[in-house]
Design goal:
Elements: H1 3-10, H2 18-25, E1 57-63, H3 70-86, E2 88-94, H4 98-110, E3 115-118, H5 123-135, E4 140-143, E5 157-160, H6 163-176, E6 181-186, H7 192-204, E7 209-214, H8 220-233, E8 239-242, H9 245-258, E9 263-267, H10 273-278, E10 284-287, H11 290-307, E11 317-318, E12 322-324, H12 329-337
Parallel strand pairs: 1-2, 1-3, 3-4, 4-5, 5-11, 6-7, 6-8, 8-9, 9-10
Antiparallel strand pairs: 10-12
Helix pairs in contact: 3-11, 4-5, 6-7, 8-9
C-alpha cells in the first residue's frame, strides 16, 4: 500500500478539538505506561486521564542513551504522557552506539510504524536510516540532539535547544559573574550536542582562560579521579562547567577531594541536583526541559498524522536555555520531586 494511502486510512474521520486536547494534557500527572495507548477508564465523568478520541497510532522513539539516566528518564516520561493523551502505542528503544541506533530505526521502518521520533547525536551515522524512513513515507521528528543537522537530513520538526546558543549564554553569564578560569568537562567526546555546548561557552566567556577536559561518563570513578587531579593540578580554575547533572554531582565530590574553591555550574537538571543548587554547592544550571522535548516530539507526530499540522514554521522549537538558580529553584523542586523536571 502506498504510504500516503496508509496514512490517510489511519487518520480519524472526525478530528478532535486539537487545542483543547493539548491543553488538557498538561493537567495529567499520573497513569503513564511505557507503551502509551488508550488510558484506563476511571469510571468518572470525563475528568479522568482522558483520551484524544483518535484511532491508535504507533510511534517509535529511538534515542542514543539507555534507560536509567535521570535526564533521559524525564524525556521518556514526557513522551509517555503525550502517548497516553494521544492514544499512541509508544515503542521506546535506545542504543548509545550510532550504528545500533540506526538499526533500531530500520526495525521501526520494517514494522511500519506511523511515525518516528529520534535523536541525532551522531548525524552522519544516522542519515541513511533517516532517509529510508522518509522514503517509506514515515514522518520523522528529531529532538535533543542534531540541532545543526536536522533540516538538511529532511527531518520534519525539531524540539530542543540551540546548544551553541545555550553555551554562549552560559559563557556570557560567567563573564558577568567575574570568573577568570573556566574548565568545561565533556563526558562523551564527539557527541555533537556536548561539543557545541563547550564551544558556545568558549565563545561567550571573555573573562579569562578556558580549557576543555574530556572524561568518560561510562566510568564515573574515573570521572571523579580525573576532575580531582585537574583541580589539584591547576588551582587557578575558579569555575567547572559540566554538561549533565550526574557529572555536576561528581564535580562537587572532586572539588571536595581537591580542596578547590572552584564554583560548579552545569547544563541540565535532575531531582538529585535540586538540593545542591539550594545549598549552593552547584551555583546554577542551564535547563533545556527534557520532559517537554519528549512530550512535544510525540505530540507533534500525532498532530501531523491526525490533522496535517507542523510546529515551528520550519524552524526548531526551542525548549531552552533557561537558568535554574537560587532565585527559582524552590518553584522547580516540587516538579522535580514528581519526576517531571
Amino acid at each position: 500500500m502506498h504510504s500516503t494511502e496508509r496514512r490517510r486510512i489511519r487518520r480519524p474521520r472526525r478530528l478532535v478539538a486539537i487545542a483543547a486536547a493539548c491543553a488538557s494534557a498538561m493537567l495529567i500527572v499520573a497513569g503513564c505506561s511505557s507503551t502509551g495507548g488508550a488510558p484506563d477508564d476511571d469510571g468518572g465523568d470525563g475528568g479522568g486521564t482522558g483520551n484524544a478520541g483518535t484511532p491508535e497510532l504507533t510511534i517509535a522513539m529511538i534515542t542514543h542513551e539507555v534507560p536509567g539516566d535521570s535526564f533521559w528518564d524525564l524525556i521518556r516520561k514526557g513522551a509517555e504522557m503525550a502517548a497516553q493523551k494521544d492514544n499512541v502505542n509508544l515503542q521506546y528503544s535506545s542504543d548509545p552506539e550510532a550504528p545500533n541506533q540506526a538499526n533500531l530505526v530500520q526495525t521501526a521502518i520494517d514494522s511500519k510504524v506511523d511515525g518516528i521520533a529520534l535523536t541525532l547525536a551522531k548525524p552522519d551515522a544516522m542519515a541513511p536510516a533517516v532517509q529510508r524512513a522518509i522514503d517509506a513515507g514515515i514522518p520523522v521528528v528529531a529532538f535533543n540532539s542534531g540541532f545543526d543537522n536536522w533540516k538538511e537530513m529532511g527531518v520534519q520538526q525539531y524540539f530542543g535547544q540551540d546548544e551553541t546558543l545555550a553555551g554562549r549564554t552560559a559563557g556570557e553569564r560567567l563573564t558577568q559573574e567575574g570568573r577568570k578560569k573556566v574548565l568545561c568537562v565533556i563526558q562523551e567526546q564527539g557527541q555533537v550536542a556536548l561539543e557545541s555546548r563547550c564551544a558556545g561557552v568558549r565563545q561567550g566567556f571573555t573573562g579569562g582562560g578556558f580549557e576543555i577536559l574530556n572524561v568518560n561518563s561510562k566510568d564515573m570513578p574515573s570521572v571523579e579521579a580525573t576532575m580531582t587531579a585537574k583541580l589539584q593540578q591547576d588551582p587557578s580554575i575558579d569555575t567547572v562547567v559540566t554538561l549533565g547533572a550526574p557529572i555536576a554531582q561528581t564535580a562537587v565530590q572532586s572539588k571536595g577531594n581537591a580542596g578547590s574553591q572552584a564554583e560548579i555550574v552545569t547544563f541540565d537538571t535532575n531531582a538529585a541536583l535540586v538540593p545542591l543548587i539550594q545549598n549552593g554547592e552547584v551555583k546554577w544550571a542551564v535547563d533545556q526541559q527534557p520532559y517537554v522535548q519528549g512530550y512535544e516530539a510525540v505530540d507533534a507526530l500525532w498532530l501531523n498524522l491526525t490533522n496535517a499540522n507542523t510546529i515551528g514554521g520550519g524552524e526548531a522549537v526551542l525548549t531552552g536555555p533557561a537558568f535554574i538558580d537560587e532565585s527559582n529553584i524552590d518553584a522547580v523542586a516540587e516538579y522535580a520531586e514528581n519526576g517531571t523536571r
